[in-house]
């Protein structure tokens, strides 16, 4: 009887154990089924978006510049020597015929004195040769000498004449050198820069002074190579002056340097001023605002909005919280912005952050917009 009770108790424990296992399996299965049946809301990516602005406004870029003269000359002495006097200062206006600097003329004067002595000796030799020729012509007429002797004195006279002419040319050249010791301005202008001081020894052709001639005034700016196409195509520009509040002058691009500066890697650009006011002076600081024509740039978007495929750049366009990949044509890059030439319209919404975790026709959730 006891054995039977023990077996029945054991069967009951086994039965209840199986029931517990089945219950646990059902609970776990139900939980997993609920998790699988949930919508994929937890997998919706979070992105930032931006509304594309209007494309009808012309883009403008501003460059710092300086008022310069259109015609400038770097002046130098035609002879070398020590500068003895400087008669002008930077910014001084000068007139044609004014003496700007002078070189000590002592050495040049000694050269002139030497040339004068050589000229006198050559002229004396020529006079002697002329007298000898006259006498020997009389002797030849009297058959006292041969024709060969007369030819000798004729040749000596011609040699003396050539030596006299040579000495005369050297003397005149020396006289010109004396005039070159004074740096004289040929046209009215303004002294922009002085490159040498009194007591300094300079060589012939070494720049000692920069002169800006009276006349047209221009603005000189320096443009990076990525902006050069815009400057070339800009129809006009607006020039403002820091020292002249409220003064705005129209400008036009006149000249673009063919090569970039070796150090700054920028291109020098000259802007002609159209009817500048008299108050515009050399050296003034100016701001040049380049204006591109209408529709020259479609849009500017953050660089982070671009999604590069294998062959071309794209952007994710958002409509009803669903993204679509669209191919765009990009232009110039400016820091963290890039120009979009085609592919986008004003008012469209694009993704600017989180572009690399999206898929075509995927639903997204916006956490911020610009």
Structure description:
The chain is of the alpha+beta class and 370 residues long. Among the domains are: 46-57 and 297-369, Beta Barrel (conserved putative lor/sdh protein from methanococcus maripaludis s2 fold); 61-70 and 216-291, Efflux pump adaptor protein, beta barrel domain (Elongation Factor Tu (Ef-tu), domain 3); 105-180, Helix hairpin bin (Helix Hairpins), CATH 1.10.287.470. The protein is 30% helix and 37% strand. The protein is built from four helices and 23 strands. The protein has helices at 2-37, 106-141, 147-180, 228-233; strands spanning 46-51, 60-69, 72-76, 81-86, 93-94, 99-103, 182-184, 189-194, 201-202, 207-213, 217-224, 236-241, 244-256, 266-274, 285-291, 299-302, 307-308, 313-319, 322-327, 329-334, 337-342, 349-353, 365-369. Strands 1, 17, 18, 19, 22 and 23 form a six-stranded mixed beta sheet that branches. Strands 2-11-14-13-12-15 form a six-stranded antiparallel beta barrel. A four-stranded antiparallel beta sheet has the order 3-10-8-5, with no helix packed on it. A hairpin with a 2-residue loop joins strand 12 and strand 13. The relative contact order is 0.18.
